[in-house]
């Protein structure tokens, strides 16, 4: 059942400022008290032990998995994490590096198909000084971008509770992941 939240009907609709006010306060949970988790209280170690629905996991690989960011910069913001509790990209094994790359590629294709995004920001913040919320556990950001960043999903976010929205986004991405777009049908093919 839909829940309707009043997130401020007088706010400017669809501006970057609007998105920032919607999403950014939640991110502070990650950086509270400058606490860096060890593997026993690390959300990225704990997530795979839950169901995909509860943990907002989009897909699971052999050595890494894809999860929706609970505190997204933008709608559809995914993280690719190795299962191992390592902080540095240079600590990842060749197999982990390869799978993180492959999962990132597939996440891009799925997000483009499901959400019609125009571009992406990809990246890893290495260390707290570089902006990593959970520096102790490596995670690659995949942030979908739209020409205006004023797309369909943030508009829904104005009228639905955040957990419900994230659950719906996860469902759409996970469904498309199971039935991936055909690379031969990509628009850049002659
Ligand atoms: Zn961890």
From TrEMBL:
GO terms for molecular function: nucleotide binding; nucleotidyltransferase activity. It comes from the Bacteria. Substrate binds at residues 69, 141. The active site is at 139 (tele-amp-histidine intermediate). Pfam families: HIT. A motif (Histidine triad motif) lies at residues 137-141. Coiled coil: none annotated. SUPFAM superfamilies: HIT-like (SSF54197). Gene3D superfamilies: HIT-like. Keywords: Nucleotide-binding, Nucleotidyltransferase, Transferase. Residues 43-152 form the HIT domain. PANTHER family: AP-4-A PHOSPHORYLASE, HIT FAMILY HYDROLASE. This is ATP adenylyltransferase.
């Amino acid at each position: 059942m839909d829940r309707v939240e009043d997130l401020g009907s007088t706010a400017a609709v669809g501006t970057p400022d609007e998105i920032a006010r919607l999403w950014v306060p939640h991110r502070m949970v990650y950086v509270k008290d400058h606490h860096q988790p060890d593997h026993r209280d690390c959300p990225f170690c704990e997530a795979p032990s839950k169901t995909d629905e509860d943990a907002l996991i989009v897909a699971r690989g052999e050595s890494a998995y894809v999860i929706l960011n609970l505190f997204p910069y933008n709608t559809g913001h995914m993280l690719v994490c190795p299962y191992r509790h390592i902080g540095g990209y240079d600590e990842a094994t060749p197999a982990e590096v390869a799978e993180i790359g492959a999962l990132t590629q597939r996440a891009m294709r799925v997000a483009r198909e499901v959400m019609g995004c125009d571009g992406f920001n990809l990246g890893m913040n290495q260390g707290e000084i570089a902006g990593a919320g959970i520096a102790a556990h490596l995670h690659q950001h995949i942030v979908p971008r739209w020409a205006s960043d004023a797309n369909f999903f943030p508009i829904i976010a104005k009228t639905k509770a955040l957990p419900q929205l994230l659950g719906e986004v996860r469902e759409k991405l996970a469904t498309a992941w199971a039935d991936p777009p055909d690379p031969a049908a990509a628009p850049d093919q002659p």
